[in-house]
Amino acid sequence: MKSQPHVLMMIEASRESGRRLIAGVADYARHFGPWHFHWQPLGLSRIAESREEMTFDGILVRDTAEVQSFMEAGVPTVAFTYGKQLMTGVGWVNTDDRGISQVVANHFVQRGFRHFAFCGFGGLPWSMGRGKGFSEALNTVGFSVNEYWIPSSQVGEMDDTDIIRWLSSLPRPVALMATNDELGWKLVHLCQEAGLKVPDDCAVVGVDNDPVVCGMSDPPLSSVGLDQYQSGYQAAALLDKMMKGKTPESLIITAGTGDVVVRQSSDIFAIEDAAVAKALRFIQENAHRPVKVDEVASASGMYRRGLERRFKEHSSRTILQACREARVEYLEKILKESKLSLEEIADQCGFTQTSHLTRFYISIRGESPSSYRKRVL
């Protein structure tokens, strides 16, 4: 390999996800390079010289079709396929599609929804994985999901009339997960065409948290963020090892999943009972500390026994279960997003000892907070 490796990078920069991937790759190259990049976001057809004259030490690519000959010749390659694992010896960056769907399902359940829907692209593994994960997460807590699958051949030419008909048939209020932000933006618009108010009749959450797409939606679109920067950085580190002839511990990288960034499209509690809605909001707003059931009842304006009965009726959970789930999800957010020690987290979240935090977390998730942090980071 040359002293300065030549790396073909075929990643588009038109979307936030692509720009974050490129930023991660570029930072790794600056820290451990330098690398000489051949950036071709529009494909090899834009390169003037013939392919026979091209020589690369490594490849970072979205679609492997155009670089098949290089891969077959043994050029180290890492692909951001988000769908299926490629040929042996190729690095693969994917997304935790079931984990993404679990985050969205939790968001909707905590807000009191009892009717759920998913819209995605049939035939695309990453989209189908998200749909399956969403259904499984909700089936586990006793809910079903109404699914609508757009044929992959119609990604650019959807049948709006049929989608509007489907949206109109859904029970209200309904919580709708879109397989990505672009489809989420489209669905918010089609809800309006169908006469559905967003979020009152239909709450919508997308995936990718692209600020431009989410901001272009009216109302602004809630979305799950993915750590594309870290994916790019780790992909570059993997490619570096491959170019140096080293054997990586794993050829698979999984993009980190963030939380739902709540915007107006899902910022609602789908509970007709005003007291229960107040209770849910109080629980969410105080998830950073221990909350007693009596406090929740006081915030709702009801006596404890009456609220407990109505809470279970409307949310299918007890008040205590809702408080524990909200608190453990807050802990997971801190574990993922901060570098605080367990001792510091315990202190900030109202645990008198770190061991109490650990026992609490294990009692709900079945693993220690340290194991969770190691698994998601």
Characterization of this structure:
The chain is of the alpha/beta class and 377 residues long. It has three domains: 6-96 and 228-257, 3-Layer(aba) Sandwich (Rossmann fold), CATH 3.40.50.2300; 97-225 and 260-266, Response regulator (Rossmann fold); 274-376, Arc Repressor Mutant, subunit A (Orthogonal Bundle), CATH 1.10.10.60. Helices cover 46% and strands 17% of the residues. It has 15 helices and eleven strands. It has helices at residues 16-32, 68-72, 97-110, 125-140, 160-169, 181-193, 211-216, 228-243, 274-285, 293-300, 304-315, 319-337, 342-348, 354-365, 369-376, and strands at 6-10, 36-39, 58-61, 77-79, 91-95, 116-122, 145-151, 174-178, 202-208, 222-227, 252-261. Strands 2-1-3-4-5-11-10-9-8-6-7 form an eleven-stranded mixed beta sheet, with helices on both faces. β3, α2 and β4 (77-79) form a beta-alpha-beta unit. α9 (274-285) runs parallel beside α12 (319-337) and α12 (319-337) crosses α15. The longest helix is centred in the last third of the chain and has 19 residues, at 319-337. The protein is globular. The two termini are 31 Å apart.
Task: Provide a short characterization of the protein structure.
The protein is of the alpha/beta class and 377 residues long.
Shape: globular
Structural class: alpha/beta
| Proportion of residues in extended strands | 15-25%
- Mean residue pLDDT: 88
Distance from N terminus to C terminus (CA atoms, Å) equals 31 Å
CATH superfamily of the largest domain: Response regulator
Number-wise, the strands total 11
Architecture per CATH nomenclature, i.e. the level-2 architecture of the largest domain: 3-Layer(aba) Sandwich
Q: CATH top level of the largest domain? A: Alpha Beta
Might you state the CATH topology name of the largest domain? Rossmann fold
Identify low-pLDDT runs.
none
- How would you classify the quaternary structure? single chain
Domain module tally: 3
